[in-house]
Amino acid sequence: MELRVTELPGPAAGVELIGRLDSVGVDAVETRFNAAALSSGKHALVDLSGVTFVSSMGVRLLITAAKTMRARQLRLLLVVPAGPVREMLETAAVDTLIPMFVERDEALAVLAP
Predict the structure, then answer these.
(1) What is the DSSP string of 44-64?
(2) What is the pLDDT of residues 4-26, one digit of tens each?
(3) Which of 3, 7, 58, 61 is least buried, going by the fewest C-beta atoms within 10 A?
(4) Which residues touch 39 (CB under 8 Å, ≥6 apart)?
């Protein structure tokens, strides 16, 4: 699992995940993910376009981060293109807790004043 912090215009910190978001992947990126997504004081836009698989551990990582951000009156948004990862997240009802978008610009538009 690879994690990249990306610069975004506007009020959001960007995090890009690449690889398998399973127990091994979560162990590899959890600390850096939390630092990048939660410590900026900004909304977080997490791009899962490069993720090929999400396990229950990956779902836990995303939901925990979203709940923490909500408590700080911030939002976590996911960019998830159509495909197996999106289907899995929808089956797990993650989309009822965390807004999911097909493209980054679509998510950024939601955060625009």
Answers:
(1) EEEEEEEEEEE-HHHHHHHHH
(2) 998 888 889 999 999 999 999 99
(3) 7
(4) none
